[in-house]
Amino acid sequence: MNDTAALYGTLRRIAETVGRAEPAGRVAHYIPVLAEADPARFGMALAFPDGETIGVGEWRHRFSIQSISKVFALVLALAHRGEHLWTRVGREPSGNPFNSLVQLEYEQGIPRNPFINAGALAVTDELLDHTDQPCELMRDFLREESGAPDLDFDQRVADSEAAHIDRNAALGHLMADYGNLRHPVPQVLHHYVRQCAVEMSCEEVARAGGVVTRHGLRADGSRLLSRGDAKRVNAIMLTCGAYDAAGEFAFRVGLPGKSGVSGGIMAVVPGRYTLCVWSPGLDRRGNSVAGMDALDRFTTETGCSVF
Ligand code: DON
Description:
Elements: H1 4-17, E1 43-47, E2 53-57, E3 63-64, H2 69-81, H3 102-106, H4 117-127, H5 134-146, H6 155-162, H7 166-177, H8 185-196, E4 199-200, H9 202-208, H10 210-213, H11 227-240, H12 246-252, E5 257-259, E6 264-269, E7 273-278, H13 289-302
Antiparallel strand pairs: 1-2, 1-7, 3-4, 5-6, 6-7
Helix pairs in contact: 1-13, 2-4, 2-11, 4-7, 4-8, 5-8, 5-9, 6-8, 7-8
Bound molecules: 6-diazenyl-5-OXO-L-norleucine.
């Protein structure tokens, strides 16, 4: 199925069932501003490779993208720093919560993958070798890819996370102790927290994610990533994008995806569509309950999965 009207019909049916169901899950509490979210809210967007986008529910409402930003950080690190990244970050699923400390100690400061928090700190550190403003680099990239020149950091969210940073700081200091951070921990944390606080709508995330869907081509048609690196980003999204629920995500949705604790999930049908769904109620592993349900219904109804 690739007809816009039919896909819009699918999204509408999903919004009518999932979007109107009793809200499920709990909003994130460990970042106080995120705890203010209403779990009943729902939006979903689908972007085609040419940038045309359709959506339902609150698909134009902006939320802080949180860990979805880790995909864009990885894309930028691969584009600007290349293979070097893989000497300091793995690409295996962790099977552990996204902010777990134990595995990092067993594995001597080398994070399992770029999507757990420790891995994302290593990616930010890597980007700091390329620019002293990695979060601005990402924001400007997202502005260009989504066609939304006004998108920016939500300073309230960034401040709220910065005031409750102990666990991420512990991850950073442990990595620094093992020699796997080159820049001061506070500097790495500052950029990491701000990249997570970029505010975007489902429509904008779906458009910005097109770089992965188009196998490494930017919105203007120029090449940012090699096809090989775009394939690797998709592979890591599939195997690590939902953390310790990555198996469940593959089982139910069957697409490369990346979740965030504000309730967003970006998913990629390589070469065809980029999806983004948002609903703030989370399961105990930090993934949107309604978001997962919506993507499950989408791939089941359309048959559009990588399997
Ligand atoms: O560092 C954190 O904990 C948050 N800024 C991001 C975590 C996150 O989104 C995990 N995703 N489900």
